[in-house]
Specification:
The complex is a heterodimer of chains A (about 200) and B (about 375). Chain A has 7 helices and 8 strands, in the order αβαβαββαβααββαβ. By secondary structure, chain A is α/β, with parallel strands linked by helices. In chain A, about 30% of the residues lie in helices and about 25% in strands. In chain B, the strands form 5 sheets. Chain B has an 8-stranded mixed sheet, sandwiched between helices. A 3-stranded mixed sheet of chain B has the order 1-7-8, with no helix packed on it. A two-stranded antiparallel sheet of chain B has the order 3-4. The longest helix of chain B has 17 residues. The radius of gyration of chain B is 21 Å and the shape is globular. The chains are: A alpha/beta (about 200), B alpha/beta (about 375). Chains A and B meet through helix 3 and strand 3 of A and helix 9, strand 17 and helix 10 of B.
Chain lengths: ~200, ~375
């Protein structure tokens, strides 16, 4: 387990591109600490991860990243208002129970939020449903009966959520594999990455 | 694995130590043990701060006492999480203790009799001062890590505040930044058991040839209840009876009664009542924010160490919430900190027990500390 990183995920590069050197970041649902370590090495960020799973805590510590063991659905009461430049929720949002409250917390603790999530409206997912099955893919590797994903959404869903909650989307990056998708993103993109802040 | 052979050593200090209370200890001795080898640049030293009933015999066995195993032998040793193949580990007995360091049972040079109640009340700050002098004596300018559980964790935290430049990492386990009213209340009941024992004689029972066994036993029984979890007690004893039927009297009937009395007797047979009083008062007094109007954020601003904070889910004497009170000011001050909440059924005592997640957290954290000291 020592210092092994998960396979670099395509959303990491998109996220890193938005983060200026030396920023302070909080990574919610940080897994084994791969993204934080990547950001420490490439962006010299000062950061903390939050994670609940015991094995991930040990991996984060082995990876040399700060990690706080905590349940995201219990809120972020250990963190002060506007404490971080960026709060990142990478491939985690869809597995949280109180997603709406969590995004509010993201914008309380951070000046900006960054989320990445699998786009449920990606054409392969649509095709699966069209043929009568729940989608299973590299982005959605679970069966319906063992999936931790309880709040899946599409690009359209997330953007209307932001509009309804006075959240301003600053930037969006849609990718499939490592390819950037510009045309028909809600149909052709498998992963969405957003940067946003509270609307003024 | 070879058995670690421990050797107790004694350091004598002739420079007076001024306590926070204003009291002065003109001369004192500290018992200590070391394990492993100090590297050439003296960067791999780890200090182990003990809790209420601990002492300098942290790991290994004595050559002439093969059954006397150190109190944290599961954690400290060759190939163990606190790896003596990589680190130079120091254990010691705090001043005021009853395991050979100067304390209430020692002879007061001014009177020629045992200190007893004349031994001054001591604080965590005073202890850290005495530990720093021991470090000076051993030629250690900066510790790779200072590690402690419970009251020992408070000392580790205090190191980061009193000597920020000498403290690279702090591992505070099952600790608290300061005690709550409930926790002080438990300590006060324990103290009262001792103070009201007719054999206590105001702390000078040595001259009367007696020991306040009843008070000390009660204090330990109460303490022991608070160190265990409700579940652990239920699992181990439940409502088990020693005899098949109720006897309708006040003798031991339930197994838990038998266990607690046994623990109380065992403790009262070797521990000093005055030391117990001093240790619990040191716990009560500790508050790093005492000089910053209660503001822990301000208190921890001057720390420079990296922190690992660990708590245990069923510990209600030093609950996970208390550990979070340590974490929050560290986050506020942008210090490096990791926090692990270990799922364990053993209550406060968990910090002394073997647990896979707990040990993995310790091992992986300290492996990285070892790399900083040049160990790959």
């Amino acid at each position: 387990m020592n210092n092994r990183l998960t396979t670099d995920r395509p959303d990491f590069a998109a996220i890193a591109a938005w983060i200026p050197p030396g920023a302070s970041v909080l990574d919610l649902g940080c897994g084994d600490g791969s993204l934080l370590r990547f950001l420490q090495e490439t962006r010299q960020v000062r950061g903390y991860g939050v994670e609940i799973r015991d094995l991930d805590i040990v991996s984060c510590i082995a990876n040399g990243v700060n990690v706080i063991q905590n349940d995201l659905d219990a809120g972020l009461s250990d963190f002060e208002d506007n404490r971080f430049d960026f709060v990142i929720v990478s491939q985690t949002l869809q597995a949280t129970l109180h997603t709406e409250a969590l995004i509010q917390e993201v914008l309380r603790v951070g000046r900006q939020g960054i989320v990445s999530f699998p786009n449920f409206a990606y054409w392969k997912n649509r095709l699966n449903v069209l043929f009568g099955n729940m989608p299973v893919s590299s982005e959605l590797p679970y069966q319906w009966f063992d999936t931790p994903n309880v709040h899946l959404c599409t690009l359209n869903d997330f953007e209307s959520f932001c509009q309804d909650h006075h959240i301003a989307v600053l930037e969006r990056q849609v990718i499939t594999g490592t390819k950037q998708i510009n045309m028909l993103p809600n149909l052709l993109g498998s992963t969405a990455v957003y940067r946003f802040q509270r609307a003024v | 694995m070879d058995t670690l052979i421990a050797t107790a050593q004694r350091a004598i200090f002739d420079t007076p130590l001024v306590f926070r209370s204003g009291a002065v200890l003109p001369r004192y001795e500290m018992m200590y043990e070391t394990y492993g080898t100090l590297n050439a640049d003296k960067s791999n030293a780890i200090l182990i701060c003990h809790a209420l009933s601990g002492h300098h015999h942290v790991a290994g066995k004595y050559a002439d006492q093969p059954k006397n195993t150190g109190w944290w032998d599961n954690m400290v040793g060759a190939g163990k999480p606190i790896d003596t193949d990589k680190f130079f580990v120091i254990g010691f007995n705090n001043l005021g203790g009853c395991h050979g360091s100067t304390g209430p049972v020692s002879i007061n040079p001014e009177t020629g009799r045992q200190y007893g109640s004349d031994f001054p009340l001591i604080t965590v700050q005073d202890w850290v001062e005495s530990q720093a002098r021991l470090a000076d004596r051993l030629g250690i300018q900066q510790f790779a890590a200072i590690i402690g559980g419970s009251l020992g964790g408070m000392q580790a935290l205090q190191w980061s505040l009193a000597y920020p430049e000498r403290t690279r990492h702090v591992l505070a386990i099952a600790a608290a930044p300061r005690l709550t009213a409930q926790n002080i209340a438990f300590n006060d009941v324990a103290r009262n058991a001792i103070l009201t024992d007719p054999d206590f004689h105001g702390g000078n029972f040595y001259q009367h040839g007696v020991v306040p066994t009843r008070g000390l036993r009660l204090a330990r029984m109460l303490g022991h209840i608070t160190y265990l979890s409700d579940d652990a007690m239920a699992d181990k004893f439940g409502r088990l009876l020693r005899n098949a039927e109720f006897k309708y009297n006040y003798e031991i009937e339930f197994e838990i009664e038998s266990y607690l009395r046994y623990q109380g007797d065992k403790f009262a047979a070797y521990f000093d009542a005055n030391t117990y009083l001093l240790m619990t008062k040191a716990l009560d007094y500790f508050d790093p924010a005492h000089d910053s109007e209660g503001d822990l954020n301000r208190a921890f601003a001057r720390a420079k160490a990296n922190f690992l904070v660990i708590s245990f889910t069923t510990d209600w004497r030093f609950s996970p919430e208390r550990s979070r009170e340590i974490v929050r000011p560290l986050l506020h001050n942008h210090h490096n900190v990791s926090y692990a909440e270990i799922t364990s059924a053993q209550g406060h005592d968990s910090f002394l027990m073997e647990n896979a997640h707990y040990f993995a957290v310790m091992r992986n954290y300290l492996d990285n500390v070892a790399k900083e000291c040049g160990h790959e």
